[in-house]
């Protein structure tokens, strides 16, 4: 099994963590997104030239949430989706709210760190409001179990758990959400989270390669 990824990408990290949690053998292939993603070999795997891409037994899967569902069906142990309908609904809500509500709000908040420029103050304020709505929703979904609707790690953790812990880093405190805070601490103690955490050096290298690539693309 091969996973094409970028360390600083939350879209690919959610798959990386899931593979580690499922204890699967895999090869990690880094794509820098500095033009290597536009090479014909990569575009043949994903015509939208995005990571992550999973290749397993010559079968290619794109879109991180599709990859997760593929992994669960092909490698069902340990289970990472609950069987109970309400628990499954909670896990899916957390996955989709992260991707559809939380992740877009992160763009303006991480803009300066990513070298995308300085957003308007009202854009930042709006993004923070959205993030807090998500956090309050998530706080309400966590019950007395250690993970979302589960005693073991599920895809809710792979998806939300690779985004929410970044919030303080982009200027949003999670102090007002004690259950979320405890949940983040629990995740940070897991080897799969520690092993996949990007460093400031990873970020710096990514940003400078990406800026060079974007400048070249604009010039040509
Ligand atoms: N919906 C996709 C999003 C993947 C995505 O946007 N990946 C970004 C990196 S985080 C990418 O590869 N961008 C390169 C490009 O768009 O050319 C998924 O969940 O897999």
Describe the structure.
The chain is an alpha+beta fold. The chain folds into 2 domains: 2-78 and 200-219, Glutaredoxin; 85-189, Glutathione S-transferase Yfyf (Class Pi), Chain A, domain 2 (Up-down Bundle). It contains 9 helices and 4 strands, in the order E-H-E-H-E-E-H-H-H-H-H-H-H. The protein has helices spanning 10-21, 40-45, 64-74, 85-110, 121-141, 155-160, 178-188, 191-196, 200-219; strands at 2-5, 27-30, 53-56, 59-62. Strands 2-1-3-4 form a 4-stranded mixed sheet, covered by helices on one side. A hairpin with a 2-residue loop joins strand 3 (53-56) and strand 4. Helix 1 packs parallel to helix 3 (64-74) and helix 4 (85-110) runs antiparallel to helix 5. It is globular. The relative contact order is 0.14. The model has no long low-confidence stretch (mean pLDDT 96). The structure holds glutathione. Glutathione binds next to loops. Glutathione (GSH) is lined by residues 9, 11, 33, 37, 49-52, 63-64.
What are the SSEs and their pairings?
Blueprint: E1 2-5, H1 10-21, E2 27-30, H2 40-45, E3 53-56, E4 59-62, H3 64-74, H4 85-110, H5 121-141, H6 155-160, H7 178-188, H8 191-196, H9 200-219
Parallel strand pairs: 1-2
Antiparallel strand pairs: 1-3, 3-4
Name the descriptors.
four-stranded mixed β-sheet, 9 helices, Glutaredoxin, Glutathione S-transferase Yfyf (Class Pi), Chain A, domain 2, alpha+beta, 7% strand, 220 residues, 4 strands, binds glutathione
């Amino acid at each position: 099994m091969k996973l094409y990824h970028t360390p600083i990408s939350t879209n690919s990290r959610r798959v990386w963590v899931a593979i580690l949690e499922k204890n699967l053998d895999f090869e990690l292939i880094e794509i820098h997104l500095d033009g290597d993603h536009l090479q014909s070999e990569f575009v043949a795997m994903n015509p939208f030239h995005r990571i992550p891409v999973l290749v397993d037994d010559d079968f290619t899967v794109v879109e991180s949430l599709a990859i997760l569902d593929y992994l669960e069906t092909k490698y069902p142990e340990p289970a990472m989706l609950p069987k109970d309908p309400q628990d499954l609904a909670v896990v899916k809500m957390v996955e989709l709210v992260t991707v559809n509500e939380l992740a877009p709000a992160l763009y303006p908040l991480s803009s300066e760190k990513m070298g995308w420029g300085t957003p308007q103050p009202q854009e930042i304020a709006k993004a923070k409001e959205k993030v807090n709505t998500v956090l309050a929703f998530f706080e309400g979904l966590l019950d007395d179990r250690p993970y979302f609707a589960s005693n073991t790690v599920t895809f809710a953790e792979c998806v939300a758990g690779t985004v929410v812990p970044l919030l303080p880093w982009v200027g949003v405190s999670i102090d007002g959400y004690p259950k979320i805070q405890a949940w983040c601490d629990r995740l940070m103690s897991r080897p799969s989270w520690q092993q996949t955490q990007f460093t400031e050096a990873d970020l710096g290298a990514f940003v400078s390669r990406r800026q060079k690539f974007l400048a070249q693309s604009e010039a040509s």
